[in-house]
């Protein structure tokens, strides 16, 4: 069972790979993601028990030094967020949609976690810095009132760290648009 995830983002690909290796060797954690992201940064996401994840992130930060862009440990991560990080979405029926867009990878992941814990919504997509200039976004679906609550709570995560770019709610999205969102 995944208890926590840890995210570390660096502004050097070479240093990012070194950090990822050290993090995996430091504690018993599993690698969810480790890859270059735009623009020329490196992202690593690990999971495991809270203490192991914290230890690995601390080791990563100590090695990253000046290359560190951002890091975060999220205990008790919602399973939908983990599935979305690995590209697995099980949304079968779309209702209203909400989108939260951020300047940071960690803000998007934290926002997605807050959103799905606050309301009965599903994650459609969690895009993390690939081919979008280093930004990230989460797309959610659910009843209008649930989307409104999830967006409100999710926005709070980005506003607190100043990295929320934009958000939107579409009560009744066009079917052609929905086909492109999945």
Automatic annotation (TrEMBL):
PROSITE patterns in UniProt: BMC_2
Zinc-finger in keyword set: no
Pfam families hit by this protein: BMC
A GO-annotated cellular component: bacterial microcompartment
Localization annotation: Bacterial microcompartment
Claim: RNA-binding is one of the keywords in the record: no
Keyword terms of this UniProt record: Bacterial microcompartment
Chief place of localization: other
Domain (BMC): residue spans on this chain: 4-86, 96-182
Family listed: Belongs to the bacterial microcompartments protein family.
Protein name: BMC domain-containing protein
């Amino acid at each position: 069972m995944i208890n926590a995830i840890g995210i570390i983002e660096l502004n050097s690909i070479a240093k990012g790979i070194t950090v990822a290796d050290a993090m995996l060797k430091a504690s018993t954690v599993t690698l969810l993601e480790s890859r270059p992201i735009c623009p020329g940064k490196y992202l690593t996401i690990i999971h495991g028990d809270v203490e192991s994840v914290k230890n690995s992130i601390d080791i990563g930060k100590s090695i990253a030094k000046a290359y560190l862009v951002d890091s975060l440990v999220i205990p008790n991560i919602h399973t939908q967020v983990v599935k979305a990080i690995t590209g697995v979405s099980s949304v079968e029926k779309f209702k209203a949609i909400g989108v939260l867009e951020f300047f940071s990878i960690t803000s998007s992941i934290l926002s997605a976690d807050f959103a799905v814990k606050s309301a009965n919504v599903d994650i459609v997509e969690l895009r993390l810095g690939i081919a979008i200039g280093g930004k990230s976004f989460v797309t959610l679906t659910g009843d209008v009132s649930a989307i409104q609550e999830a967006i409100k709570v999710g926005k709070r995560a980005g506003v607190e760290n100043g990295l929320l770019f934009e958000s939107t709610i579409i009560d009744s999205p066009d079917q052609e648009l929905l086909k492109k969102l999945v």
